[in-house]
Amino acid sequence: MDNDDIFHFLFKVITSWQVIAVTVALIIYFSMVSSVARVNRPKRPAARSKPKKEKAPKAPPPKASEDGEEDDDVVHEE
Description:
- The protein has helices at 3-14, 17-39.
- The protein is mostly helical.
- It has a domain at 16-41.
């Protein structure tokens, strides 16, 4: 058998009414199965709403004075 005979044979098999009918039947079957599975899927519980903890506002970092001097209200231990 040469290539032309193989391609002619495959074309005849693929385009036969039996292969086409089985392919269409499988497509319909799988689409029905997937739609039934989607309908019968158990419902997911709603996201559990935990009470949100309010975060204490962060204190802003101490600002350095522009002239390079230290703040007077800072206590230094020696």
